[in-house]
Amino acid sequence: MNAGWRWLTDGSHWTGADGVWTRLGEHLWYTLLALVIAAVIALPIGALIGHTGKGTALVTGLANALRAIPTFGLLILLALYGLTNLRGEFALLGPTIVVLVILAIPPILSNTYAGIAAVDPAVRDAAKGMGMTGRGALFRVELPLALPLILSGLRSAFLQVVATATIAAFVSLGGFGRYVVDGLAQQDYAKVVGGAVLVALLAIIGDRLIALVGHFVVSPGLTGRRVSGRATTADLVVPAESDKPQDSEAAVLRTVDAGGKH
Amino acid sequence: MRWDWLDRNSDQIISWFLSHVWLAAVPTVLGLLLALPLGAVAHKYRWSYSVLITVAGLLYTVPSLALFVMLPGLLGTRILDPINVVVALTLYTLALLVRVVADGLDSVDPLVVQSAKAMGYKTLPMLIRVQLPLAIPVIGAGLRVAAVSNVSLVSVAALLGVPQLGQLFTVGFQLDFFTPIITGLVLCLVIAAIFDMLILLAIRLSTPWIRATRSSKPVSEPTAADADQKSADAKAVTA
Questions:
Q1: Most exposed: B51, B53, B93, B136, by fewest CB within 10 Å?
Q2: Which of B169, B38, B80 shows the shortest CA–CA distance to A170?
Q3: Packing angle between helix A20-52 and helix A177-186, nearest 10 degrees?
Q4: Could you say which of B63, B169, B234 has the minimum Cβ distance to residue A166?
Q5: pLDDT tens-digit profile of B164-213?
Q6: What are the domain boundaries of chain A?
């Protein structure tokens, strides 16, 4: 662990083509590219399924089936396919991004769907009563109400993608995984641990940042933050006794489902 | 598919298959055993709930490859030791299940708890003989998720050279050869399916009352919103 620390605090490891800043840039590039593509695909579909209630079984089935596929194997399968059948830089980047997008879609899709499907029917009726069209209700009522869940889906997706982008170094892509993979090959344990710490930090900081964004964009009425007066995090944390989930199996499955781990 | 290659390497593949099963199953069981008491504590004391869920959430955030390679430094093990994989996956399983066990115990009807108390149950016997059995459907659902993702995570350890099915992926990549990769994928899916079925079977056998009530009265619609909202709240703790 100390060796890893010394590696990280050595300034020469931070600059140049193999420096930490370059690798951070690569890691973030893969991650954001995959997240944006996945969100563009999954958000509208999830919103549509939640709004209309059609295709629910498809979403849950898909999310469960995808979790069982070992990501590492899928990555290598597609990378090998890319190397044999595609040309240039895209040969490796393309397949890797495809794998990352495949990973990121289920949490975003199922949380968007779940968030919108969970909107209180009375609220839906009220929106209709106020003269909103289906589309108006979706954008002005249902989506804002579903926002906390949608963001938590994005967080799960982000974590999976960051972790898997690390593994992508094995198929000779850049990013923080390079340090781990190269360090292992060179038996340079300090480098391995340095890379691992960087990946862990990136995952944790990114996760906190998305949570922070949620703190600001979610309506205060939803988070329980007081609109006026001082809001403390304690208000967010301690749920009232009545907040305890009464029904359970499906609820927990849903919460856990958002996760998945890589 | 080159079946002759599979045939020639069948001994190696079987040994990798068995260690894969072992490396995924042991952490699932250990994680559950550790999560039960911790989840019970989180259920009983509200303050510990936020603390435990926060720590668990943070732990779960660390990517698997990073944890695999950081553990030798922390535990004093060698980097190739399968024990690192077992510890890492046990931690993930524990992190996932603490919350599930606590929420499962929360989901037990307070009237049932009162009745058990009135019948003279003390805290621990009530926990073991009344609350835990009633929480099985919830805990089981979480356990299925943990078991299946453990099978997938084990294969990442192939990057370190720990022998298991993930080696088929690295071998396939190095040889530029699809047969081992597809074999590895299929065998991983088989293990995941077997784990899932075993857990489902265990849940069914240990909750006979669910089938009894399901046929006679309609199951109420799940209200996932509460739990989801609470998960968002709990996560906000560390924000």
A1: B51
A2: B169
A3: 130
A4: B63
A5: 999 999 999 999 899 999 999 999 999 999 999 999 999 999 998 887 76
A6: 16-217
Tokens at residue A239, please? 């749920």
pLDDT in tens, B82-119: 999 999 999 999 999 999 999 999 999 999 999 999 99
**Closest residue to B223, CB basis, from A68, A197, A251:** A251
Look up residue A8 and give its amino acid.
L
Closest CA to A254 of A151, A143, A62, A115: A115
A196 vs B contacts (CB less than 8 Å):
65-67, 69-70
Query: Would you give the distance in Å from CA B234 to the centre of its chain?
Result: 20
Q: How far is B3 from chain A (nearest CA, A)?
A: 18
Report residue B197 as tokens.
Answer: 């079925």
Helix (H) or strand (E) holding B231: helix B224-236
Distance CA A248, CA A28 (A): 37
| Interface check B1 vs A, CB under 8 A | no
Q: Supply B77's token pair.
A: 């093990």
Handedness of CA A213, A216, A218, A220 (dihedral sign): positive
Residues of chain A contacting residue B99, judged by C-beta atoms under 8 Å apart: 255
Q: What is the ipTM of this complex?
A: 0.82
The residue count for chain A: 262
Rounded-to-integer distance, Cα A259 and Cα B152, Å: 14
Say which of A3, A4, A261 has its CB closest to residue B64: A261
pTM, 2 dp: 0.83
Instruction: Classify domain B3-237 at the CATH topology level.
Output: MetI-like fold (1.10.3720)
- Look up residue B184 and give its amino acid: G
* Interface residue B38 vs chain A (CB under 8 A): no
Matching residue, tokens 């960051």: A162
Residues of A within 8 A of B237 (CB-CB) are 233, 236-237
Choice among A53-67, A157-171, B91-105, B174-188 with the minimum mean pLDDT? A53-67
Mean pLDDT of B6-18: 94
Contact state of B192 with A68 under an 8 Å Cβ cutoff: yes
Residue numbers of B between 63 and 92 with CB closer than 8 Å to A = 63-67, 69-70, 72-74, 79, 92
Out of B170, B227, B236, name the one closest to residue A255 (CB): B227
> Are A148 and B178 within 8 A, CB to CB?
no
Fold exhibited by the domain A16-217: MetI-like fold (1.10.3720)
Residues A110 and A43: beta-carbon distance below 8 Å? no
